[in-house]
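To whoever is on call:

I kicked off a structure prediction for a single chain this morning and the downstream step that reads the tokens threw a length-mismatch warning. I double-checked the sequence; it's 237 residues and nothing unusual in it as far as I can see. Pasting both halves so you can look.
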Amino acid sequence: MTFLNVSGLGRSFGPRKALVDINLQLDAGDRVALLGPNGAGKTTLLKIIGGALAPDVGRVTVANLSPGEARRRPGLLGWLPERAPLNPDLTVEEHLKITAAFLELSKAKTRERIGFLTEALSLKTKLPRLAGQLSLGSRRQAALAIALLGEPRLLILDEPTISLDPEEVARLRNLLKSFSPEVCFLISSHVIAEVAKVTDQAIILYNGHLIAQKSWLELGPDYEIGYLKETNERADH
């Protein structure tokens, strides 16, 4: 069953074409890295899939729902933006409880999920702190907890390891590996060696075009070299 369907997607900002005719399908359990140089369109694509940006043309569905509908339902779509819009005057715990109310989680389920994510991401001491007082890494962890609160089956992560220290990166990696095999990942990252540890294949964007979708094995034993080969071949045409 196709869980995420992206069909004929296009988006421009003035004269610049950020995305051109993007077609992508992910089935339950697919774990995919989204690669590409700066300006390739990665964040634009994830914003559209996450329901924060409308395409000019084309369509995105998550379990046959629009991204906006999917985000309002627990168990479907979790999205970590590159710059998560946390309210600096709310605590981490308040952010999580507001998200739980948005998803209409029961009080018992809210306690269970906050407890689990607090432990998994080492957030216990940060729950009572205002978001505006957190380090960039702690803000990233809090935003990740918000994305994961509803136990999504499709997880969209835009540069999830930005500002994380090595211990926090390892903690995130272990958490992702612990998820049910039915959960889909689409993870944008410039750290190819790290994202390859939690995904099975890579999609490469270049100048708004999807130029390749390959397993890590197909990219070769040195993933960075395989990635550069794909982008350099595109640049030469």
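Update from on-call: the warning came from a stale cache, not from the record. Cleared it. Sanity check on the structure: Residues 107-120 form the longest helix (14 residues).
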